[in-house]
Amino acid sequence: MNHSFVVKKLNGDGLIKINSNSLDLGFGKGSDVLSMAELGFEVDAVNNNAIEIENFKSELNIPINLNYKINIIDNNIENFVIEKNKYNCIIASNSLPFIASKDKVLEIIKNIAEGLTEQGCFYITIFGEKDEWRENKNMSFFTFDEIKSFLDSLNLNFYHNTIEEGYAQTMKGDIKYWNIFKFIYIKK
Fold first, then answer.
1. Which string of b and e fits 101-139 if b means at least 16 CB within 10 Å?
2. pLDDT in tens, 49-101
3. Regarding beta strands 87-92 and 116-127, do their DSSP bridges make them parallel or antiparallel, or are they unpaired?
4. pLDDT score for 63
5. Tens digits of per-residue pLDDT, 114-171?
6. HSE on the CB side for 155, CA within 13 Å?
7. Residue 43: is it exposed, middle or buried by C-beta count within 10 angstroms (0-12/13-18/19+)?
8. DSSP assignment of the chain, as one string?
9. Neighbours of 171 (CB within 10 A)
10. DSSP string, 53-104
């Protein structure tokens, strides 16, 4: 299997401990979940989109995936309770921006940090205020300084970030202007 870009980065940089627990909040098509499971992680995969869950379950019926340890959790990421000190790796890729309340996003990020084991890492994406969807009241957008300052206030070590801007496709195939901040932090 070709690992997802995120898992390739985390594994290639030696940030994840194989055969431990990981969490994917809002797993979408499930490429990060499958990549983590293939590496030997027990993965808690959270999503409340019935179509995405069914599509992912269909993919899991492929015989090669029978030994994967994946717990599909049908829950809204806003309501999912992250167990403290459980996960070596937590991924929230393109899911947090779809929460309307910025305060709720920050609360979830704080819970993500607390859910990490010692030396565990997280990868999150946040949409910036230049994003084309910024007028959508059902989503949240941050300035880079605003989100970076919050992340730096947590008991974590900064590892990596990127800022991506430009026109690209959405999951539906439309073209839009993106403004995305991607962060990796490690628990001290």
1. ebeebbebbebbbebbbeebbbbbbbbbeebebeeeeeb
2. 998 988 888 877 655 556 789 999 999 999 999 999 999 999 999 999 999 99
3. parallel
4. 55
5. 999 999 999 999 999 999 999 999 999 999 999 999 999 998 999 999 999 999 998 8
6. 11
7. buried
8. -PPPHHHHHHHHTT-S-SSSEEEEES-TT-HHHHHHHHTT-EEEEEE--HHHHHHHHHHHTSGGGTT-EEEEEES-TTTPPPPTT-EEEEEE-S-GGG-S-HHHHHHHHHHHHHHEEEEEEEEEEEEBTTSTTTT-TTS--B-HHHHHHHHHHSSEEEEEEEEEEEEEE-TTS-EEEEEEEEEEEEE-
9. 9
10. HHHHHHHHTSGGGTT-EEEEEES-TTTPPPPTT-EEEEEE-S-GGG-S-HHH
Token pair 């430009």: residue: 166
Q: Which CATH class is domain 5-187?
A: alpha beta
Q: Which two tokens stand for residue 7?
A: 């898992």
